[in-house]
Design a protein that fits this description.
It is built from 5 helices and 6 strands; from the N terminus they run αααβββαβββα. By secondary structure, it is of the alpha+beta class.
Length: about 270
């Protein structure tokens, strides 16, 4: 019933504004008529009515702005709910696809048959395209672009586990806002990637939403929110997909679900690529 109440309120303001404007017009005519006495009284009446017109018009403007803001908030809420529902549906599919891809790769390897050169080349080319699409998509979909350059303000990177014993992850590729990320994650940061994220199969979300701080770059002033998710295919642990953004509230739960879905698709791709 809120819309019905707002409708009648706007109609009342419109009618009131019209009546007051008519009153100003009539008062100005009477004030200028030599046959009418008390010219000063009608001037004051016209001035009061003119002020009332301005106040009513300001009320109409404020009401319209409130409705616009309400519509923007409602659109944002619905978009977030839709995105959450979409990614909640996509993530299990990506996980199942990754498991299927791992089983296919293992079954093919067990046959001992060599991979045809053409197939190997096609796998490498397509996996590179998919990886690039994942990185660009994550950097574009997670935050608003820079208003001046219209370029992404987020940065997405994929690190592959290259040495489990040394807790070492190597940057494969990245996309988004410069500067580029670290080429190698090792030491304490590598241990965090390996044990907290990849082995544990859990995401790590840095920012004001969670209150957590980055274990890779604790003193970063450029990126205040980070999401890191494992890239796996079934039981095969491949690496970590990360996205970071400048604002502490830029990355939300919806973006965590998005990153998990993208990581699942990437894991399936890399498992098939071998």
């Amino acid at each position: 019933m809120d819309w019905f109440r707002r409708y009648w309120l706007k109609l009342l303001l419109l009618v009131g504004s019209s009546l007051l404007a008519s009153g100003v017009f009539v008062a100005s005519i009477w004030a200028g008529d030599n046959e009418v006495k008390n010219h000063e009284k009608y001037l004051w009446i016209g001035a009061v009515l003119a002020v009332a017109v301005v106040l009513v018009a300001a009320s109409e403007t404020a009401l319209n702005e409130r409705e616009k803001e309400h519509a923007r908030r409602e659109a944002g809420r619905l978009a977030g709910a839709l995105a959450l529902s979409y990614h909640s549906t996509l993530a299990p599919l990506a996980t199942a696809l990754g498991k299927l891809a791992e089983e296919h790769a293992e079954a093919y390897a067990a046959t001992g048959a060599p991979v045809p050169a053409g197939l190997a080349g096609a796998r490498a080319a397509e996996s590179a395209v998919i990886l690039r699409s994942v990185l660009v998509g994550a950097s574009v979909l997670t935050t608003e672009p820079d208003p001046g350059t219209h370029l992404p303000t987020a940065r997405c990177a994929f690190y592959r586990l290259t040495d489990r014993g040394r807790h070492e992850f190597t940057l494969v590729d990245w996309a988004g806002a410069p500067p580029g990320p670290r080429p190698v994650i090792d030491g304490a940061a590598g241990s965090h990637f390996l044990h907290d994220i990849l082995d544990n199969g859990a995401q790590y979300h840095v920012g004001q939403v969670t209150g957590l701080v980055s274990k890779v770059d604790q003193f970063s002033a450029k990126y205040r929110s980070v999401i890191a998710v494992p890239v796996v295919a079934g039981g095969k642990k491949i690496g970590v997909l990360t996205v970071d953004a400048p604002g502490g509230t830029d990355l939300t739960v919806v973006h965590v679900d998005l990153m998990k879905s993208l990581a699942g698709l990437l894991g399936a791709t890399l498992a098939l690529a071998g």
